[in-house]
Amino acid sequence: MGQLTTEAGRRVRMAVDAWTAPPDAAELNELLRHLGRWRSHMLANTYLTHEGARIHSGPFAGMEYVGRATEGALIPRLLGTYESELHPHLERFLAEGVDCVIDVGSAEGYYAVGLARRLPGAVVYAYDISPHARQACAALAERNGVGDRVVVREEFRPHDFEAFAGRRVLVVMDVEGAETELLRPDLSPALAGMRLIVETHDPRGVGVLEDLRGRFAPTHDVLRIDQTPKTFDMPDWLRALPHLDQLLAVWEWRGIPTPWLVMSPRAH
């Protein structure tokens, strides 16, 4: 029995042994999520066995990737279904012309390296506060031949947008709730001319999405994007697996809805 399965079984046993009464819905949901993540890891390992660490489809198809994500689910990235709701908006922005990408919360470089491959004339600035993520991103950029155009940095601050004023910038941001601190048009007027794709996080229900929408409404067309079911060109080996495995293969481990804001600057 593999280490992943052994550890998953141990955690299930611990949870069950700790029940002094029939578990409530929240406890069962957490246990189900744990088992779902275990199966997702197993499916990622199966993908790597069949396909290697190469992205199967989507805007970054063919990109060499990693065998272990620094955070979140790996197999949706490998399949190319990860955040597929954003694909048409990414393509639109790329078609409009981008000479610079700011990726804040870059993790191991799915967007940073993928966009560097798609934009051979652009420089991508990848920010992450995790040293492990920065190291993984730099290594992935080198592996894909774009190490000279992916600049890996640590902390991003609200006024740092000003250094990119006047350029054709695409901002990609996933910072687990810090988006309201970083996206401050009052502190950085350069944001008015930038294209943005922002994942929003509002676990306390304080209106993060509406707050950001209000900040950018004077300068941008703001579109809310919600997660939708996935359809994709499934590899034959995955097509042969049970339907539950096919569903778990594209599960992105989101515990609550995290809608995106896609914001396009208005022409002056």
Topology of this protein?
Blueprint: H1 3-18, H2 25-51, H3 75-79, H4 87-96, E1 100-104, H5 110-118, E2 123-127, H6 131-143, E3 150-153, E4 169-173, H7 179-182, E5 195-199, H8 208-216, E6 220-225, H9 236-239, H10 243-249, E7 260-265
Parallel strand pairs: 1-2, 1-4, 2-3, 4-5
Antiparallel strand pairs: 5-7, 6-7
Helix pairs in contact: 1-2
Label the CATH architecture of the largest domain.
Answer: 3-Layer(aba) Sandwich
In sequence order, what are the helices and strands, one letter per element?
A: HHHHEHEHEEHEHEHHE
Query: Which class of secondary structure composition applies to the elements?
Result: alpha/beta
What is the CATH topology classification name of the largest domain? Answer: Rossmann fold
Our measurement of the CA-to-CA distance between the termini, rounded to an integer number of angstroms, reads 62 Å
Largest sheet: 7 strands, mixed
CATH superfamily of the largest domain: Vaccinia Virus protein VP39
Give the low-pLDDT segments: none
CATH class descriptor name of the largest domain: Alpha Beta
The count of domains is 2
The share of residues in extended strands comes to 5-15%
- How helical, in percent, are the residues? 25-40%
Average pLDDT score: 95
- Per DSSP E runs of 2 or more residues, the count of β-strands stands at 7
Shape: globular
Cα Rg: 20 Å
